[in-house]
Amino acid sequence: MRFNPLCAVLVLAAPVAAFSQSSPFVPDARMRALVNELSGDRAYEQVRHLSHFHRTDGSRDFWLAAEYLRGAAEAAGLEDVRLVRQKWDGHGWSCRGGEAWLLDPQPTKLADYGAVAVAIADDSRTTHLTAELVDVGPGSAEKDYAGREVKGRVVLASGALATVVREAVWKRGALGVLSSMTNRPDAIDAPDQVAWGHVPYEAKGVEGVPDGTPGGFAVMVSPRRGLWLQKQLAAAAAPLRVKVDIDSDYPQQPEQGMVEAWIRGSEIHDQQVVLTAHIQEEMTSANDDGSGCANLLEIGRTLARLVKDGTLPRPRRDIRFWWVNELQSEPRYFRDNPGEPRKMLVAINQDMVGARQSWGGRVQYASRLPWSLPAALDDVTESVLEAVRDSNTSYLTNRGTGQPQPFLREITSVKGSREPFAARMVPYFDSTDHHAFTPRQVGVPAVSLTNWPDEYIHSTGDDLENIDATQLERNAVVVAAVALYFAALGDEEVPALAAYVAARGRARVAADSATAVAELARSAPAERPLAWRASWNLLRQSVAKEQAALASLRRLAGRGRAADVLQAAARRLEGTLASELDALERAYTATTGQTLPNIDLGPDERAMAEKIYVPLADPAAFEDALAKMRGAGGALHPMMRFEALNFADGRRSAWDVYEAVAAEALAAGEWYYGRVSPKDVLAVLDAGVAAGAFSVRKR
Q1: Are 453 and 3 in contact (CB under 8 A)?
Q2: What are phi and psi of 648, to 5 degrees?
Q3: Mean pLDDT value across residues 481-498
């Protein structure tokens, strides 16, 4: 690449200007205060402490970690800190110690809980035995056991642990498993990682096995060690023995828990901003989710200090901090306190926010909201995330602006890296705690910051060397800034927010219009009528989603200028729909040379249009019923099953639900959510009826 000397002259001659990338939702003084006080190094030290606990849910170490977080939250200056004990249908397994030895031809230690906690799989029962070791390869299929006697022996297996327990222990009488399974796509990706494994607690519905039969035990070793053991067994002239000693227990009354803390707002207490991270994981689990727990502490400490010393005013709204048992504490809390979601404005989750991004090409993703729950949170989060990203990424043309190099507004930690910040918003994903807020029966707009891909998660690989204090700090700035914006939002600021959301909404409709045109262009002639219907539907649903996002602001707008902006924006969206549909029609006729196809509903589609699925009114009963229908829905992506259940609100017909879900999937792309068919959506809804979650009435 050639270097332009003129750029250097301009850089030297230009005065340093304060026009680095910024967000309209974070005033410069507020951003400076956050960047100056938030410390990735402090958060890193909290991760270091949490990594000492094998904090499997409900275990002794879980409670030790929870107590530590409670004390740290109090020390951080947060208000009304408490440890909440909750009912739970889990088990609370704890391990006091465990070892495994290969005795022949000479004693070799294979595993030691005290050295590597994940060496003993969760829910391994107390065991003291010496037995023959038998190699069954993967151990997950009938053929793996052909010609092998495993009853009364320990099996060496590399397959999924739950499957191996079913096939070897329950069906064939093996005593337990020496497992070399991997949590990576392929063992060769990480041959020295020891996976975090879980023994099924007890048999249920396994043919020929009494329900309640314990799962035995599993000792976890790395794929490399497993291969070494296979070679030892293959070369041995006589059977090889292993000695296994495990001491574990369960509490008499299993419980889960969460830690709660507050920064109390000065005026408004029914529009809370909730920040979450989850406590439970394996030891060390530094990134997942030691990073989120640590960042939540650091955000709390920072905001409490800035408010206390007068640098920032106390926010108008409450900020509520939750350290939880992942995806279990929140449903339990909402079940016990059904009125609480109505007091919440938005929620922001952090799960895996400390990754050294150069290890494995990890990206810090922020989840958009599902289309069933549109709100302004998307736009504010994206604006702040992009501001922090672009201020901490080096761009070629920045050399000519006279601004600092390589980063325009540097956010780095003393012990962290100087890597750029790879971050972006993506369509909705689940698998972490924001997903507990977004079901229809809860209805709190929630996003999550979660890095991916992660080749270290749920294994010995997720340790402190994975953690970059710089990325901790950048993510903390993003979350703190978004939380503080909503918590401090004044009535006079709502019109600008409404105008921004409306403008971004029109941009998204335009993007969906391009997707609609592309759908037409790539369709074969015989498929064009269906492609036209899908494209036409996408535009209608896209505008409806943006109108709903604007409507969500009425909670903040009240009357006056903001309400006027919302009304005008809604009218403009209606005009946008008309113009985009006209442009789509012109694109269709120009592409095909044909008039528009007939999109009247067929008999099956009309039948769907006549059926309305009405959810149970009681949120707890609805949730219990949904638990009975897991996996229903044919080929639908899990997120589209989730959305089908959300859109089935007792007002939309089954066909309306299909159209909403199909548009959401098309907008994201088939590569992201797959395809959606009426048949699959109907299968989900009918499974909901069979489970008792819905009743059906005619339109």
Answers
A1: no
A2: -75, 85
A3: 96
